[in-house]
Amino acid sequence: MTMEIRLARIDSRLLHGQVATFWTRFVKPNRIMVVSDTAAKDDLRKTLITQVAPPGVRANVVSVNKMIRAYFDSRFDSFKTLLLTENVGDMLRLAEGGIDFSQIGINVGSIAYEDEMTMITDAVAMNDRIAKQIQTLVNDFHLEVTAQKIPADKKIDLLNLIQKKGFKVN
Question: Of 56, 69, 99, 128, which one has the fewest beta carbons inside 10 Å?
Answer without folding.
Answer: 56
